[in-house]
Write a structure and sequence with these properties.
alpha+beta; 3-stranded antiparallel sheet; 45% helix
Length: 82
């Protein structure tokens, strides 16, 4: 009986183990996260503002990483650095 060779390399398996699941937020969750009304989020969407959004079937979702990156760009220059 001969041993079968694995289809994937150890490096590929290690990379797959390090992947984090993508956290998707619904519009309601995002509004709560940002402390804004759902209506404000919808207005931003119609104006092409706010964080990047994705369509998952008929649902709109936001990647938490995209939201955090968008927030970093919203820093008000009038504040003091810590």
């Amino acid at each position: 009986m001969t041993a079968r060779k694995a289809n994937s390399t150890p490096a590929r398996n290690a990379a797959a183990d390090r992947r984090q699941p993508v956290r998707l937020l619904s519009p309601r969750e995002l509004a709560d996260y940002l402390g804004i009304t759902l209506n404000t989020l919808y207005v931003w969407n119609t104006r092409g503002q706010g964080p990047r959004r994705y369509r998952v079937g008929r649902h709109v979702r936001y990647r938490l990483a995209d939201v955090d990156a968008w927030l970093e760009k919203q820093v008000d220059g009038g504040g003091h650095a810590a």
